[in-house]
Amino acid sequence: MTYQPLRNFAVLLVTSGFCGALLAQPAVQAMSIAKQRMVEAVQDWVSETDQIGAASVTVHANDRRLRVPDCAEGFAISRPYTDAETLKVECPAINWQITLSIDIDQANPTWLFSSALPRGHQISATDLTLLTDTSAKGDTSIGMPPDNYPDIVGKILRAPVRQGQRVNAETLDESLLVYRLLRDVPAGQLLTASDIREEYVAANTLPLTARLTLAEINEARSGRDLPAGWLLRHHDLDFRQTVLTATQLIERGAALTAQNTRRTETWSSVPVDAFPFQGELPRVVATGRISPGQTIRHSQVRLLPEIVAGESVATEVVRGNLAISVQLEAVEDGRTGQQIRLRNPQSGRVISAIVAGDRRAQIR
User: Cα(first)–Cα(last) distance of the chain, in Å?
Assistant: First the structure.
């Protein structure tokens, strides 16, 4: 059943349950509360979508024939038409819907586009004009207030706009910085800042692989022949990586040392769990056999604690201003900050100490 809209009446598009609701006189009070919830939901949605105050939105829902259900799951609200002041409100759980008209008070200043601009254009300060006389006729779309200036400049246009059109959130996309080649680059050539130009594009059109930083590009080389104008992506480039490789056969249980490993720089792809070279080699042992020249992976090694049971531990004993160092034997494994037991090899006495580092402990 469809009702043609009047200015202060809603256009009703409801399910067959509407007729029964008209006869349900005892439920009038409950329906009134549900209608108010719907009105508040519409005001909140318009406020968030159009970046205006909820108090600026008037919802025409005063028709006494309008019965609104108690939509426990919440109302779904949308703009099905180009008219910004016509909304569709749905309660999907019970297949109920209605078309409402609203009024928006444009009493506050708002931003306009100062000229016609194409889709994909990145907005700058010169593209905007502040409209202070909101009684002016013409564009009746919902605009963005002056406070939203930082949320406008730098964004990308989702669609072409005309001169004098109000700026609203629905025409804007987030922008991200990408890089294009200025010339043909052969495979294997290092890239420099002079080879690329910066460009801003809409974030929703950008593949994740194109999200590169200038620092990454400066440390990369072309992985294949690339033409001028090409949008750079991760898989187009080879990145210099430093890994740890075995210089000789390392048996299971053997410690990795400066004698059986070396730091290696490579442009080739490396395993995702390649063991990184971090300067000083940590205490690790092989969990399986590692062949000479092989890139060492996390899955092939086990990180040892700073103190291992049975090791001799340099222990500092602090008493007031006096500190002495003695060699004690670890009764158990321990990592930095943990409390472990140490044994005096002469007396056999067991005492507690705090792990202070590689084969070091402290007693206070």
Answer: 86
Query: What number of other Cβ atoms are within 10 A of residue 177's Cβ?
Result: 13
The pLDDT tens digits of the residues spanning 296-347 come to 998 899 888 999 999 999 999 988 888 899 999 999 999 999 999 999 999 9
Tokens of 273: 């769990």
Three-state DSSP class for residue 26? helix
State the DSSP code for 312.
Answer: E
Count the residues in the chain.
Answer: 364
**DSSP one-letter string for 200-268:** EEEGGGS-GGG---HHHHHTEEESS-B-TTPBP-GGGEEE-EEEEEESS-B-TTPBP-TTTEEEEEESS
Question: Residues of 338-352 as b/e, b for ≥16 C-beta within 10 angstroms?
Answer: eebebeeeeeeeeee
Task: Tell me the whole-structure pTM to 2 decimals.
Answer: 0.44
Contacts 24+ apart (CB under 8 A), 220-225: 220/190, 220/191, 221/188, 221/189, 221/190, 221/191, 221/267, 222/185, 222/186, 222/187, 222/188, 222/189, 222/191, 223/187, 224/187, 225/184, 225/185, 225/186, 225/187
Cα 63 to Cα 6, 32, 87, 205, 280: the distances in Å are 10, 11, 16, 44, 78
Q: What span, in angstroms and rounded, lies between the C-alpha atoms of 156 and 263? A: 45
How many angstroms separate the CA atoms of 314 and 4, rounded? 91
Q: What are phi and psi of 275, to 5 degrees?
A: -75, 120
Place of tokens 């016509």: 86
Complete domains list, the chain, with CATH: 17-104 (no CATH), 110-173 (3.90.1210.10), 181-197+209-239 (no CATH), 240-304 (3.90.1210.10), 312-363 (2.30.30.760)
How many Å is the Cα radius of gyration of the chain?
Answer: 35
Between 125 and 279, name the one with better pLDDT. 125
User: In this structure, what token pair is assigned to residue 153?
Assistant: 């400049």
Q: Are 331 and 314 in contact (CB under 8 A)?
A: no
How many beta carbons lie within 10 A of that of residue 10, not counting itself? Answer: 23
